[in-house]
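ok so for the tutorial part 2 we go from a plain amino acid sequence to predicted structure tokens. step 1 is just haveing the sequence, like this:
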Amino acid sequence: MTRNIIPWKKNRDTALAREEDNPLVELHQRMNDLFDNFFEGWGMPSMAPAKAWSLSPRVDVSETDDEVRVAAELPGMDEKDIEVTLENGLLTIRGQKKQEQETKKRNYHVVECSYGEFHRVIPLPVTVDEGKTKASFKKGVLTVTVPKTAEAKSRQRKIEITS
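step 2 — the prediction. this is what the tokens look like for a chain of 163 residues:
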């Protein structure tokens, strides 16, 4: 009960917030687009960084009767650059992205390098068996499968809908 009045405790639901959902990040992106579009018609190369990947990966969380499955999109990354931890019902995905893009044209040569770290914390909605968690990485998608405990399975019950 005191959890609701303590200002320095983070709400677990905010852990899924993405950096792109921040209005200041959106304003920054729009300003970058404004300046990039201004120079576009003058025959100068675009200075905008590639928007193919964000530092905060998208995740899908799904739940079945037996498990919780989290899939994170991590294109262009290797499994050695990713760390997955599970503690107290919080699944944390950390990684470091390194990307380099080079463009050579007749009048100019542009090399764009971007490096950055990310982490996503996903609160799991049920009691899970942390010791039996499995993770796989294939074609840029990290899939973490966390089985539910027998206790969590037994607490499920079907609710009859009446009209």
